[in-house]
Design goal:
By secondary structure, this protein is α/β, with parallel strands linked by helices. It has 19 helices and 25 strands.
């Protein structure tokens, strides 16, 4: 299913211009590729037969596809629109996983000393290749995840923006601090700088197959670490293509390694003493388990967990724009976003009259196979990831109605012609939802919007703050005073004002809070650099003349 056109490594411009002694690792690694395995450079990838052929993915270890696994166990990858098996990944063994970690540890010995501007140039080339292969990446994502092609491209672009910071703000964030002349005698200075941790790892979810890996390994590698990445076994293709592309950009062998698997791989990453830090995005149960197990072994762990994002709608909001924004944020990507709006709080009597408009807007959305959303075809919502996810979503809708919610729009039982076996659920709107209703207490991860009516902004803020999650929220209003009150009083890490999905640009950090994160250092931006580095502080004494005693038995006071 993948046709690859190759470019010999010796023709690559990175090799031609890397000649200084400081570039030994890069040049040696690239030249080895040119002389030992010349046809390994990927230039273009094109996909055939609309993913009807079967793809067998391997681990990517030490700069090449690794088929050394001794396990006969494989994990099937299905197209959620058809539930047909389109690929498989290996269930990595302990030996496979150790090989990946050993390769990363070996590469770190030299990668940590490659000047950061050279590491940044590789990421610049990588960013270019991501843009060049956007269509191929998008089709891989849609085939395995189900989201529309347009949404898949958004997945890629938001990850690409993180890669682009690796040539700018990530580099400047590595700068240290200096305080000279800290003692009267002169010659004593104190300064600090950031160093990479060593081997670090990332465990990724199914819902953003490109963006989440790109939140992790580009920053980690730019600041000098080496990386072991475990993509979701449900959506491995994008991570594999990204690994090939960054290799093509000049990343030396062993700096990025991709392993596949489930529990065995996760437990290995949590336990392996060589791995210094773990990044995770996914559900509550897995995230809390990884945080507990990883930190018990002395690792840093940042784990982004579940969410229940509330949108507060005031009567002075732009009605048409707000209705469109709520529908898109609630039902886009079939609700499988950690920043999806799943609760709408309508404030005042006037906003209660907006329900028919919201229903009409949701009914305009077309449910179908995301691969059919190209060109003139209009598909807005793809399938859920698995039959189990679909069943769970429909069961919660049923339970919610049994508990007293009003079913304004029912997306259960939908059938898409030609894709009768797909995991489709249509837009669903529930009203009269209480905070103890099943639709409110569960993160459904489906295209379901729970609607609550209140009398005041204060009530809306209180409901939002009482929810245990703190990933994102929003307010729709024409009042600057109301917006300011909301942003200061709401206890949520990311706030949108007339913005439905307030995911910040990567010059900032992704700052979900409370029950939506385990750990206290966030993804990307300055905090991303902080997570993947250790600050070292040096106090030095280099007196040019008139040397004084270097110390005694009493505490030094720097007089």
């Amino acid at each position: 299913p993948i046709i690859i056109t190759y470019l010999a490594a010796a023709q690559h411009p990175i090799i031609a211009r890397r000649t200084t002694p400081l570039q030994t690792m890069l040049t040696a690694s690239l030249m080895q590729r040119a002389t030992v395995n010349p046809p390994r450079r990927i230039l273009t990838c094109k996909f055939q037969n609309n993913f009807k052929n079967y793809t067998t993915y391997s681990n990517w270890i030490n700069g090449t596809s690794s088929s050394t696994t001794s396990s006969n166990n494989t994990i099937e990858v299905t197209n959620p629109a058809t539930n047909q098996v389109i690929a498989s990944v290996p269930e990595s063994t302990q030996e496979d996983l150790q090989y990946a970690v050993d390769s990363a540890a070996k590469a770190f010995e030299t990668w940590q000393y490659v000047p950061i501007q050279q590491r940044a140039r590789i990421m610049s080339k990588f960013a270019h290749l991501i843009s060049k292969h956007e269509n191929e990446l998008a089709r891989l994502i849609t085939a395995e995840n189900g989201k529309t092609l347009a949404d898949a491209k958004g997945d890629i672009i938001r990850g690409l923006e993180v890669v682009e910071t690796c040539t700018s703000s990530v580099v400047s964030s590595m700068m240290g601090e200096t305080l000279p002349n800290i003692a009267n005698a002169g010659g004593m200075d104190c300064y600090s700088y950031k160093q990479p941790l060593g081997v670090v790892a990332g465990i990724c979810p199914f819902n953003f197959p490109a963006m989440i890996p790109l939140w992790m390994f580009p920053i980690a590698c730019t600041v000098g670490n080496t990386f072991v990445l475990k993509p979701s076994e449900k959506t491995p293709g994008a991570a594999m293509l990204l690994a090939h592309l960054v290799h093509d950009a000049g990343l030396p062998d062993g700096v990025l390694n991709v392993v596949h698997g489930t529990d065995t791989a996760v437990n290995f990453i949590c336990d392996a003493p060589e791995i210094q830090a773990i990044s995770f995005v996914g559900g509550d149960v897995a995230g809390r388990y990884i945080h507990q197990r990883g930190t018990s072994h002395g690792k840093r762990v940042q784990a982004n967990l579940g969410a229940k994002n509330h949108a507060t709608i005031l009567p002075d909001a732009d009605k048409a724009a707000t209705i469109q924004a709520i529908a898109g944020a609630a039902f886009g990507a079939a609700g499988q976003r950690c920043m999806a709006i799943s609760v709408a709080i309508f404030v005042g009597e006037e906003t209660k009259k907006w329900m028919p408009d919201l229903i009409h807007e949701a009914q305009k959305l077309t449910v179908g196979n995301g691969l059919d959303s190209d060109g003139d075809n209009n598909v807005d919502i793809g399938p859920l990831i698995t039959p189990e996810a679909k069943q769970r979503c429909e069961d919660i809708i049923t339970q919610s109605v049994e508990q007293g919610a009003a079913l304004e729009l029912d997306g259960r039982g939908i059938t898409v012609p030609g894709y009768e076996g797909g995991n489709f659920v249509g837009p669903t709107i529930l009203s009269n939802v209480t905070v103890d209703n099943a639709a409110y207490t569960n993160e459904i991860f489906g295209p379901v919007l729970s609607c609550i009516a209140v009398d005041s902004l204060e009530e809306a803020i209180a409901i939002t703050n009482a929810n245990p999650y703190g990933n994102g929220c929003g307010i729709f209003t024409a009042s600057g005073a109301s917006a300011r009150k909301f942003q200061h009083e709401v206890k949520v890490g990311q706030v949108g004002i007339n913005v439905p999905i307030p995911v910040p640009l990567p010059y900032f950090s992704f700052t979900g809070s409370r029950g939506s994160i385990c750990g206290d250092v966030h993804f990307y931006g300055k905090q991303g650099v902080q997570f993947y580095t250790q600050t070292k502080t040096v106090t030095s004494n280099w007196q040019y003349s008139g040397a004084s005693p270097l110390g005694g038995v009493t505490m030094p006071t720097m007089k």
